[in-house]
Amino acid sequence: MKRIANGAAFALARDLLREGHPVSVRVEGQSMLPFFRSGSVIRLRPLAAGDLARGKVVLGETDAGTFVVHRILHIGRERITLLGDGNWCGTESIARERVHGIVDCGRLHLALARIWLWLRPVRKYPLWLLRRICPR
C-alpha cells in the first residue's frame, strides 16, 4: 500500500467528494481522541441536505488551506466552528462552502459525542491520560 501525506490525501478526498464519490482515508494525529485514533480509517461521503448539525464530524478546509476532520461545535449563517475531540481548547472557523464531506457515525458514536461535548470544560484530564496510553 502506498502512503501519501495527509494534506495530499485530503486534497484528493475533497476532489472525489465534490464529484459525488465516498472516500476512505486513514487519519493521523490525536486531535480526534477518543473517537478516532491515529491510524483509524474513516469513511467520508458527500454532504446531503440536513447533514450539517452540531456534533457531526466533517472534513473541512481552513482559510489557510489546511484540512481538518473535526466535530461541528457551532453553525452560523456563513461559517461553521469545528473542534477536535482531542482538543480541549482551540477551534477552527470554516466557511460553509469549505466543508467538503461528512463522516458517517453510528447512533452510539453520536450519543457518546454529545456527552463528550458536554464534558468540554473538564476533558483535558481524560485526554492527558489517553495521550499517554494511545501511541501516535
Radius of gyration, in angstroms, nearest whole number: 14 Å
Q: β content, as a range? A: 25-35%
Could you give a short account of the major beta sheet?
A: 7 strands, antiparallel
Q: Give start-end ranges of low-pLDDT stretches.
A: none
From the spread of the alpha carbons, the general shape counts as globular
How many β-strand stretches? 7
Strand order of the largest sheet: 1-2-7-3-4-5-6
- What is the share of helical residues? 25-40%
Secondary-structure element series: HEEEEEEEHH
Structural class call reads alpha+beta
Assembly category = single chain
The N- and C-terminal alpha carbons lie at a distance of 20 Å
Mean pLDDT: 88
How many helices in DSSP terms? 3
Topology, pairings included?
Layout: H1 6-18, E1 23-26, E2 41-45, E3 57-61, E4 67-75, E5 79-83, E6 92-95, E7 99-103, H2 107-118, H3 124-133
Antiparallel strand pairs: 1-2, 2-7, 3-4, 3-7, 4-5, 5-6
